[in-house]
Write the structure tokens for this entry.
Amino acid sequence: MFKKTRTVEAVKSVSFGIDTGETLGLVGESGSGKSTTGRAVLKLVPVASGDITVAGQNLTDLNGRALRRARRRMQMVFQDPYSSLDPSATVAASISEPLMVHDHVSARAARTRALELIELVGLRASHADRYPYEFSGGQRQRIAIARAIALNPDFIVCDEAVSALDVSTQNQVINLLERLRTEFDLAYLFIAHDLAIVRHISHRVAVMYLGRIVESGPAERVYNEPAHPYTQALLSAIPNPSPHRRSERRIVLAGEVPDPARPPSGCPFRTRCAFAMDICAERMPEHTAIDGGGEVACHLQTSGPELSGAPLGDLTAAAIRPA
Amino acid sequence: MPRPKKPEEPAVRRRRAGRFGQLARRFAGNKPALAGGVLLFVILVVTMGAPLFAPYTPEQINIADRLSGPTPAHWLGTDALGRDTLSRLLFGGQVSLAASALSVAIATLIGLPLGILAGYVGRGPDWLLNRASDILMTFPALVLTIAIIAVVGPGLTTAMISLGIVYSARLFRVIRSATLVVRQEVYIEASISIGTPGRTILLRRILPNVLPPLLIQISFLLASALLAEVTISLLGLGALPPTASWGSMLGQAFAEIRGTPSLAVFPGIAIALATLSFNLVGDGLRDSFGRATRKAEG
Amino acid sequence: MTGTEPSGSLLSIEDLRIDFVTDRGWVNVLNGVSFDIGKNEIVVLVGESGSGKTVTSLSVLGLVPRAHSRKTSGHIWYDGKDLTELPIGELRDIRGNEISMIFQEPMTSLNPAFTVGDQIAEAYRRHRGGKKKAALARAAEMLDLVGIPNAAARLRDYPHEFSGGMRQRAMIAMALICEPRLLIADEPTTALDVTVQAQIVELLIRLRDETGCGILFITHDLGVVAELADKVVVMYAGEVVETSVARDLYIQPKHPYTEGLLAAMPQQGVRGEELPTIPGRTPEPWSMPSGCRFGPRCSHAVEECGKAVIPLSVVDNGRSCRCCRSGDLALGGVR
Amino acid sequence: MLRLLGARLLTMVPLLLVVSFLIYGLIALVPGGPETALAGSNPTPEKLAMVREQLGLNEPFLVQYWNWFSAAVQGDLGKSFVNGQSVWSAIAGGFPVTLSLVILTLLIAAVLGLGLGLAAALRPGSWIDRTATVIASLFMSLPYFWVGMMLVLVFAIDLRVLPAIGYVPFAQSPTDWFLHLITPAFALAIVPVAVVARQTRAAVTGVMTEDYVRTAEAKGLRPVRLVGKHVLKNAAVPVVTAFGVEANRLIGATVVMEQLFALPGVGKLTYFSVFSRDFPMVQGILLITAILIMFVNLAVDLSYGYFNPKIKAT
Amino acid sequence: SGKPGDLNPGSTSTAAGQPAQNVACPPTDKGAIDKNATFTWMYSVANTSFDPDKVTTSNSWMYLFPIYDTLTRLNANGEPEAMLAKKWEVGDGGKTLTLELIEDWKYHDGTPFDAKSVKANLDRHRAKGSFNEQALSDVKKVDVSGDSTVKITTGHGAAPLISILASSAGMMMSPAVFDDPKQANMPTGGSGAFRVTGYDPATKVEYTAVKDYWDPDALNVAKMVFLISSSDNARLNAVMTGQADATFLRSAMYQPAKDGGLVVCQKPSLASFTIALNTSHAPFDKKEAREALNYAIDRKSINQLMQGFCQPGVQMFPTSYYASDPDLTADKYPYDPAKARELLKAAGVPSGFEFTLETDNLESYTSVAELIQANLQQAGIKMKIQPVELPKLMENFSVNKTADAVMVQQKADADPSIQIAAFYLKNGFSNPGNYTNAKVIELDAEAKAAQSKEERAAVYKKLFQEAHADAAPPVTLCHLNTPLAMTGKVQGVEVYVDGSRQFRGVAIKK
Ligand SMILES: Nc1ncnc2c1ncn2[C@@H]1O[C@H](COP(=O)(O)OP(=O)(O)OP(=O)(O)O)[C@@H](O)[C@H]1O
Ligand SMILES: Nc1ncnc2c1ncn2[C@@H]1O[C@H](COP(=O)(O)OP(=O)(O)OP(=O)(O)O)[C@@H](O)[C@H]1O
Ligand SMILES: [Mg+2]
Ligand SMILES: [Mg+2]
């Protein structure tokens, strides 16, 4: 599996590792580079520099046939259930594809296995010869998952795998993913912008902003004691269903996400940060370890007067004004 | 008290059918398309079965019975040489349809693989092929074809090959842009992520998904090519006598248009019906595929 | 029939029933939708995808595609007029003027061929007349109001030069430029990031407070509802299954579907636990179950549910519910 | 805009070079030279050799091409093999006729095609739509020269309301200009009318379902403004594209049409030159039409930027 | 027989349903002429040059006759008449021709028309590279004696010259413009009744009458316009709508023109449909094979196809022409496939043979070819048809000599000797197989030297007998008869027996 080394460099010096059976949640705003990161892990986008290591095998320099072979260990489930399946192929054909490609099994054997997988993800074998347009979003996502686990991979990137689904369906798919993870000892890179879902499924969470990971750590710590102002804002923006907490102040970030092609100097978040200091415009903050586990990249932690490896928690109400 | 009605029974029963089965169902549900399809089928049957249906051989001359209007012996009359118009129409259809099929086949043979290649590979090959199609598109197809025939010598095959080459540029464009669309579909990326080799992706993923625009384009090109055949034969550059083609029949009829107008009317109708059927089928395919796609989009 | 009409109601939808023609013939899409929106009130319409939220909102302004649809019953009362029967010319005078709308897709709801300013000013000129220049000045004011910096300059931008959040704000500016009495916002935040979503919700609440307009807010996210709703209307498969004051709905839902929705909210889950789901899936419009439409998926269903059509009935103090067991069930709300 | 135009014009230069090379080569490299056409009805071998010499046909091909091309760039397309007329002036002489014909044809296509297409699109499924669709399908299927012939028989021969042949310059008498061109133009227009109508219908119905049209409708806009402003501009791209394609196709169709109507245009010149193996003329015509088509394509491309600012941005 | 006759109700025909052979065009009614009128003629083929030495085909003469008067003139019946030469005389045992010229006439550019200028013209015409070089190849020298007398000396005989000087070889052009290349497009040195005042090569030529023309009776209009369209229908339409005054007709257009109320007139011409053979391609080298071909073609049905406008014939010229054998009538080669098969056996190809016939790609040619194809099939001869454009046809047959056979419409030339040279003599333009027959060669020389027309006629009769005996190519199919169609206003248009189109004296009724 991923070793805890600087394994991936995607977008801009993004590094993380995932252990066997572990789920890493990756959150952030649209355009922050989550998908790119996920795709870089599978080498679906060219990686300019850095290493990707899966189970000790370095993917970085693999190409062509070797890369294709290596891909059987890692799979991906995409966001849009409507476009991630070939509309002109039957469900069974889509699920068989990896089997035929990698195991060179006969069409019949592939089909038998495909039927098993269809049952495994909670569909009926009678669905095998249908076409994707005959399925609901949730069912399609199940089919995509069946395809992803067909080769018993070690690792699956779920790029917003449930974002397009209704709450109830979303939960069904999440439950399925969890079941499969425990059953097959899978590792997930779970990309989502819905922080509530990520909290539920992830062991650890990484928060991206403008192509960088600004904070990472065990899910509990990040959610309960966010150390980066951006994480803080994100968390406060989660719509809260409880009518009792309605009066709580919410941090509304001012302005728009800057153009990723022309990010601000220094800390990328400084243009929208309520705590921005002079130094934030000058230098990119370093990743610093933090109490309770994980790292954060924020000058408040290193150069700031008050925080130093402490969560941001209590400060917010007083210090952050709504925009 | 609101009394909700019982939901109506679906008008069409849900039936197990593949994607193309679905398509066929939609196509059949589209009246003009169905009419076009039936028409095309009938035209194909009677022309391809010409030896069975035709009352005379198309070259049988009977100068004594020339330029007769429709009679019981010659339902559609005879031409200047006394040949039976109906028989010539049936056999001529073979020639005209085969000629348009030839040019479209050539266009497909060139345009389809190159279009997929350019769309899928991109970069250098794409640039090069695009420029090549730019150049081809810069020539007026008919003028170029006439010029080529004028130097190479007449003959339907030459004409249709050169037309096919010109058409290939059009087809190339359509296939290329369809491939570009398909190429950035997530399911292609999914296949790549699975480790499927490029060749398999091209054949199993891209090709089936560019079939809809291909089929639509082919049916329209067939209509164009048929008209082009007629034009070329009209100018005397097409089918070599005594072979009948709808175009050469129309050309011959033009000489007699005042004396025996029916001579121009029947090939005209045949051409119009065939073109109409191609166009209707093309429209029908587009609508059917279109709806399938829209549905797939949610 | 619906409950008594609140006298202060701004808009009142009464037993609305709409069919659509599809591949499978006419299918019923809205079935007896009734609810009111009061002045200065924010009503939130929630429901799963395909439950008929958008069709409901479109029918208020008569924007349901006529060629494919038919209204089989119902009224939409506004200012003593039935909007569904109003001549199209009069309805056009109301559109964008007294009642305006924001749509689900900020990315596609602005015309790519014209500048943002042009499109915002257009609504103003249509209803208030005047010179283009004045309308543009007003448009700049509105853009500023919805929080777009450097508004006057951005008027000349084309939609593709705006980010999603900015486009949605431009849409809001367009909707508000004639100071409507009712604003209909159809999932205005669904396509946006959480942080932007929060901005928009804040903006709408502020606008309601400032201008006093009523708002019909449509969403499928119960989380958002809690943030701003005065009243909640829950839809399922084309029917209103429950209406309630927001707070009560969360504490004690009356309809099993509402209960299921609340439980399924991800915010409710605990790590490691199986997430609660509602079994089955929403019925297709052409194969609606008889009786209670939620019946086949309902864990509380009894034989009676499948038999007769269940009316939307008042349960207590302004709440109504479409469940034959609403009296005897005690359902759980938000933890 | 000007920069874009400049850039596009620049990219046309290499294209033109390749095209001109192909045109020249295609015509000149064929076995059996053009000299027989020139040497008259009883040529002797000496006479043929002399003619070859005069035409510079004994030079290496590349030299011949270069001589031709460099002269062409300076506006000298050579002389007709058949009658010694300057190719350029022959083309220039026929150009107004063909241009008149094409413009009138496109005008008819625009008026009828847009009209039919819009009428159909605004009431999809109605009898207007069905009628328009039938008309379009029918127009698309009729051979245009056949239609032209029939129109002449009816309007010129039987009814005697229109002239059967010939051309009158616009400057001389706009009415006569119109009367002489209307029959061939209408016959030529039937296919463009059908194509434009279908394209318009498809584009407009497509745009009508766009979210932004609903937005505009929700603003209370009245249909005229809604369609006239919001729909048309967005539906324009495929329609304009269709116009471009049809303009290109028309250039070929005029060859037949000008023949049938004895119109002294470039189409007739093409026919005449091709059949009399007047190679410099054929080369000149192909070159000029190729350049024309390039400009038509350029204009179409540039119009995209106006109709869709997003395209301009990319 | 029935049908075709029915289609020609106006015909006076008997068996083959042929229209009347001579229908005269309306003569000029001197009293009712509109001298300011314009006469518009519509033709199928454009002009190639306005310089009589630079034209490339005799088709172009039509465009030149109004501009350049010729020394002699052949009237519509093919008889020589005075023109710029008011008198002539053959002398020196038939070797010289002395011309006496009209006086007080000037070229259009003001240069006086005199003997000196005539000599200059004739010398230019016979110079190397001139179109007329071959026609005048027998001329040895031209002498000027006095202001208006010219004497031409020939090698073999002067008789042919009388008609040759009525063609482009006798056209007179101002010597002042000889070297002006612009003359090809805008002639200014003409000697005829008209000047060109407008020219659009593929479309039209406009002529305006010159002032004080030397023969005022021959000039009855103020303007002439020649329009060009190769579309038969367009031409007929133009006359029917009155946009043109006259045009020529193809057979299929005859009846519609009459039905449309047009005046249609006609006369047999010297033009014929012929199949020229390349005798170097077997079995055309065998007399029997050529004979078989003649027997295997049903000439009557061709005439029927042409609606009676192509009289069956088996020799180069129709029997009505002086240069012909009156006994060689069409029944010399009755349609007889069985006989053809026998002859094929004799030729050593008992099971028939295959060849390709190249012909003009116009519908009027290909349908004849198709008919012949069906005829030959009966005799076991497989003929493929290859339609090509005219220049290509000439190139394949006469220049590259690759074609087996071509079917063409053979136009009469200025003198029979020219046509004979093309087909029967070595290196003849239409004789790619170099077919030769010693007797024919001998008789040809004799005819050239003959003193009188009668004498020539007798020689030609023998020549064509010999040719027939040897089944010499070409295979003549029929003699064409191309009618003219015109509006009721037109007068004085005549059908010229040699197939030339001349409008001398044309008039428009008031
Ligand atoms: N193929 C590409 N070409 C150019 N830019 C790209 C490409 N793919 C992604 N980007 C850019 O890279 C940045 C990161 O994109 P990415 O899709 O990874 O974001 P994301 O966090 O997944 O966003 P979302 O939540 O919208 O999916 C964006 O600014 C995007 O515009
Ligand atoms: N034009 C149409 N033709 C046919 N059916 C339609 C049409 N528009 C909507 N429907 C159907 O009406 C039902 C309700 O759709 P509606 O758009 O109102 O759902 P929604 O609640 O807004 O869903 P979402 O949350 O996805 O926006 C769906 O079943 C849909 O398929
Ligand atoms: Mg993404
Ligand atoms: Mg909706």
